[in-house]
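TEACHING EXERCISE
Course module: macromolecular assemblies
Task: Read the component lines below, then compare them to the predicted structure of the full complex.
Student: A.B.
Group: 4
Components provided:
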Amino acid sequence: MAREPLLGRLNRKVFGYLASRFPPTPYSDLTRRGVETIQRQMPRSHAEKYELKTIWYWYPLYCLGGISFVAFIILTITGILLGFYYVPEGTIATDPLTGDPTSGAYRSMQFIMNDVPFGFMVRGIHHWGAHVMIAAVFLHMMRVYFTGAYKKPRELNWLLGAVLLILTLGFGYTGYLLPANDLSRGAATIGINMTKASPGPAWLGHALTLLVFGEADPTGFYIIRMYWLHVFVLPLVATLLMVVHMALVWIQGVGEPH
Amino acid sequence: MQVEAVRERVYEGRPGFPAEYGPDRQGVQPGYPFWPHEAYRDLVIIFLLCAILLFLSAAYTPVVGPSANPAIQPFIIPDWYLLFSWGLLKVADVLPTCQPPSCQIPDGFGGALNVDGAFWGDVLTLIPVLPIFLLPFLDRGREARPAKSPVRGALGLYGIAFVFFASLYALNDRLLETWPFLTDDTLKVFFVVPPILVGLAAYVGLRRLGYRDMYWWLVAALGAAFALILASGFWAFAIGPWGLDGIDPWTRLLRAFGDPRAWPTIVFGLIPIAYTGVVFYATAALRERKAKEIVLVASVIALFATVGLVKWSADANPAGTYDALRLIATNGNFLVALPFFALITFYVGTRTPYSTYEYLLNECYQCGKCHTVCPVTKVEDDALGGLNLVYNTFKKQHDGVPLWTCLACDACSAVCPLDIHYSDYILEERSKAFASAAEAQARSGVPAEAAK
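Instructor-supplied answer key:
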């Protein structure tokens, strides 16, 4: 029997791999039909369809991914509000009145906390929302791990989630470096030192430090880098990845408990 | 010829033997309506989250703190989710360091690699991060449930415990300041011993959840725990800090009885050792029910004895109590952790999973082999109406007929591709029914004969 040519076999392997994971379903048609139907219904899950006796205590844990997304939306709204008043200016100067060190960023933080109406509430929601989001992401990852939801066909979505976890930690880190207070400076010192010591040649760590923090010692210039990472780079990448993450959940279905 | 013979025996589609098992298969499976069923649930979650955030920001408003000051090196604690990395950075000083002047590890670009604490901190931070990225390629198994893949569950809990203790070590200077009887070495060993204990206890508990008999695992684990705590006690009393004076252990022990400063150490040290020994003995030598009673009593006694003695002794003999606490805390990885490990492992290893057979029946994907071989459906008149013993029992849709007409011949288990022991389930359900009937009779006081 004549063997199929290598290219054909390879094609079949690649497209077979993709088709078994991301079946070509007309999602736009499905969406339109779903929107146009008067009696809109959520599809029944596998467990509901076959009346399987699922373990009920897993189910409350299935809202954790959604909670982290809702927290992300709340963080976006409060972050936009904070952005109206925050000044990413980290150069340390002496306060002419008190003689203490201060900076543009620190003064704008004091302005938000003391003078902006409900500024302290908006910042408080942004602060605690970040904690809630990171906790929800951690717990979401544990749920996915312990229900084995990362297995075939959802490997790619697990990797996307792992990248999103690191991006979320990046949000947290860049975020608490912004107020230009002592915590910001101390954390920047640790971060700069650890980036400098990146495994590999010495120039790599130095180049990475200059790329991420913009300076080799935390003098205050790092604030503007962290600001752009926090309000532009990370939101752009993370929002795109979140959309793909949730689209894949829709395409591949929820990894249910058994 | 053979094909005809097989066709002869195929009952599918004949009267009483429907070709499809399970609910009617339709092209469209009706689901729950989005409004209000799903929308209410989501709105409740969103409002609850908003309420929590509003409460937290009003009651615990985050303060900005003093401005960054290059003149002052502040004592800071990073946010909790980065503590694990900082803890690993701190513990990295146990690893060998190598600075370019003293050693030359070429980095491949003409320079030298700087192997210091920060380098090891970076490398160690990868330890919890890398497995997350490799996970779907390392674990290719089919089983999703923790009870069916206990190694994965145990490794997961091990990882969580490791990250927790790494985060705890980031606060080591605070901890040592608050509890001066702790030592830094004890906290360093927290990276090794407690995560292993957590993983081991989780493994035993998960296997038990999957209906395995964990007797020998318990005996081995608790025996090892008892041996370790004995060795730790011997180290603490004989060759540890107490043994540096060169006196042989027995002499010192005998002399210690006359020394009022020393006896709290002996008593407090003996409680965890004796407790672990009791748990080990009960597990190994007694029947499970008896062992559970003994362990319960021993746990209560040990708890109250420890709390009461510490409280009483703190007033009567403060110097001796401090010595005892220091000795126990220094050996916290064994003298403190192992009794808790013994208790938790014993509990999870002997408990009866409450959702007994339903958990195993869950594997059923309704292939219908059990129905095909079931002899009852071939002779019972009811069966002609499509009675499916296993499926009806599984769905709790039976009216008592499947439960009491089953012969427990186990033919269904023999053909089950997932090895579900259906007749075990039937027998247990029957014994439950008998037990509740007998209980009801005993309560009503009517003899069984009269009740009929």
